[in-house]
Design a protein that fits this description.
Layout lengths: L4 H23 L12 H10 L11 H11 L5 H15 L1
Organism: Paraburkholderia metrosideri
Protein name: ParB
Length: about 90
């Protein structure tokens, strides 16, 4: 059975849209495999092996700015600084 002209044009448009989606994947860095950063799943496995657990809380922006400023000079970064501060606070 022959296709209608509108169906043919719709199929052409679908093919074109698909080709455009595939062509932009590499352009925005999705195709780069040499990225040294770990993906979330690998990072989660490494964190679990170290005994780390995600912990979320809400802090005021002033406290966060102060923590970020102090973490810039800390050897372990923000997680290490927070661990120190919380341990000191719990020791009291």
């Amino acid at each position: 059975m022959a296709m209608k002209k509108t169906d043919l044009e719709k199929n052409k448009a679908l093919k074109l849209n698909n080709a455009m989606k595939l062509s932009t994947a590499d352009r925005f860095g999705k195709g780069v495999a040499a990225d040294p950063k770990l993906d979330r799943r690998e990072q989660r496995k490494l964190d679990q092996a170290q005994g780390l657990v995600p912990f979320a809380c809400k802090l005021s922006s002033e406290v966060v700015d102060d923590l970020k400023a102090r973490a810039a000079n800390h050897p372990e970064g923000l997680p290490g600084l927070l661990t120190e501060v919380i341990k000191r606070g719990l020791a009291d």
